[in-house]
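User: Predict structure, ligand flavin-adenine dinucleotide.
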Amino acid sequence: MNGRYDAIVVGSGHNGLIAATYLAKAGKRVLVLERRDVIGGATVTEETWPGYRLSTCSYVCNLLLPEVIRDLDLKRHSYDVRPLDPQYFVPFPDGKHMISYLDSAMTKEQLRKFSEKDIAAYDAYWAMWDRIIARMRPLLDLPEPTQAEIERAFDGPAGEEDWHTLTKKSIAEVLDEYFESEQIKATLCVGGVIGTNAGPRTPGTAYVKYHHILGKIGGHQGAWGYVRGGMGTVSQAIASSAREAGAEILTNAEVAEVEIRNGAATGVNLLDGRSFDAGVVLSNADPQRTYLGMVGEKHLPDDLVEGVKRMRAEGSVVKVLLALGELPDFTALPGKEIGPQHTGGIVINPSVDALQEAWEECERGEPSRRPFIDGYIQSATEDGLAPPGKHTLSLFCQYAPYTLSGGTWEERRDEIGANIVETFAQYAPNLPNAIEHIEVLGPRDIEARIGITGGNIFHGEILPEKMFDGRPVPGYSGYRTPVENLYLCGAGAWPGGAVFGAPGRNCAFEVLADRY
Ligand SMILES: Cc1cc2nc3c(=O)[nH]c(=O)nc-3n(C[C@H](O)[C@H](O)[C@H](O)COP(=O)(O)OP(=O)(O)OC[C@H]3O[C@@H](n4cnc5c(N)ncnc54)[C@H](O)[C@@H]3O)c2cc1C
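Assistant: Predicted complex:
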């Protein structure tokens, strides 16, 4: 581990590992440096308590590019994803429930409980998304889509209308156009706010919804899947492919600064005093951490520094990890034996209005009194993640602000976690007594653990004004930076966050095109 590298990648998130693998496969000498003692960033499985293995941050997969899976031969490296079926179970306060299956005929039978009219609307709604996804697909491979490329993609019948829907409408507005049932709208609106500082009535949240259905699992557009062994398997599979191609990966190696000489990156200096030289440096860290932390304002144009400081980086997601002695017993679909209410996602959101209210509380600096919850019990679908007879439960919740209007996270973390448990328990009253362990991760905990500034799960909002040539900052989009030989390869770059791989892949191609 000495001498000069062709490329150093700062951070072993899945994007950094993907970029490293493409470069190593192209014959380059590559070193990945990770500050934590585990690789994967937010794509990680951890043994949170003895015998309980949880996907601590990201928990399900939809977007990981088929090109990445193919090029890196990830299946041979143990990547195994299965679509959830059912996709989700949604209990409502009146005791009714809805289940969405991979089979749309079965899902429509569920919709019938709420509205006959909405059954026909369901196909039209998906046809609209299929059209938008097909238009957007070619743009995902570009470093930063230009206006001309966007116009070409949205050319033809309904093009203008699709662009307007994607970039201007709120998810609530879109759903109002198609559906009459409040329960159906409540179920479908949550994808429009995931990881986002916005409510379902915020313009642009249609884009967030699109982002959450743009992938396919097992041929099912928009379906989400469990990765066997948890999300850490994604990172481990990529790392295995990277090592096979010759890349070196070093953990406990926090980069303090990018070494810059005559305006060009020449390597990195670590917090522990070690230094490594390289022809190019790729940063998988978020834009703030990269530019303001590792590069430094003095090496950057003023407007970039201003733009990065203005980026809204503070997240409002809380992740609650639980070890359970028994499965949740839902009032709307009783049973403590494994059933369809346990094997897909469990969505707790009574209405569009409730989600909007939850957001408005967060905007005022308060944790939502009745947060939206996206729950998953992966142990109900796979052995080895919990001791026999026990289960894991992962709750992804919104919202709780990074900066609370009253008190600190240290003071209020337990209360915020208890409120989330109580919200879930309104639908599954046995939950509190089933809990054997609990860990609550607010935005500040995600920041400290994963190293994402503000704990924003996407390294910056994925609302439309922050996408395309506005990502991460207008005037400085794409993967190249104003510092020669320094590139961004993480979720903060186009086409954005999630376990996706597009920024890492595109960045590697740009480096190879620029230099080799
Ligand atoms: C709680 C949570 C839940 C989520 N749920 C989902 C989900 O279910 N599905 C989904 O698709 N997406 C989900 N996401 C989003 C997704 O996980 C992220 O957008 C994605 O993993 C980002 O990947 P990345 O490789 O760009 O960066 P990261 O995963 O953030 O990795 C960056 C890496 O850089 C390292 N690093 C930072 N600074 C330094 C330094 N100075 N020196 C060395 N190393 C450094 C960090 O330690 C980290 O390992 C979730 C995210 C969170 C936080």
